[in-house]
Amino acid sequence: MKRIKFILFGFLLSLVVQSCGEKSTNNDDKLKSAPWEDIEAIAEGTTVNFMMWQGSTAINDYINNYVVPSVKGKYNINLQISGGQGPEIVQLVMGEKQADIEQGQVDMVWINGETFFQLRKVKGLWGPFVEQLPNASLINFEDSYISTDFQQPVNGMEAPWSINQFAIVYDFEKVPNPPKNIPELKNFIKEHPGTFTISNDFTGMTLLKSFMAELGGGPNVLDGAFDENKYKQLSQKLWKFINDNKQYFWKEGSTFPKEQSKMNQLYANGELLIAYGFNEGGIEDKVLTGLYPESTKGYAWSNGTIRNSNYLGILYNSPEKAGAMQVINFLLSPEAQLKKADAKGMDSNTVLAMDKLDTEWKDKFLDARKRQYGPTLKELEVNAIAEPAPEYMIRLYEDFRKNVIEN
Question: Which InterPro entries does the UniProt record give (predicted)?
Answer without folding.
Answer: SBP, YnjB
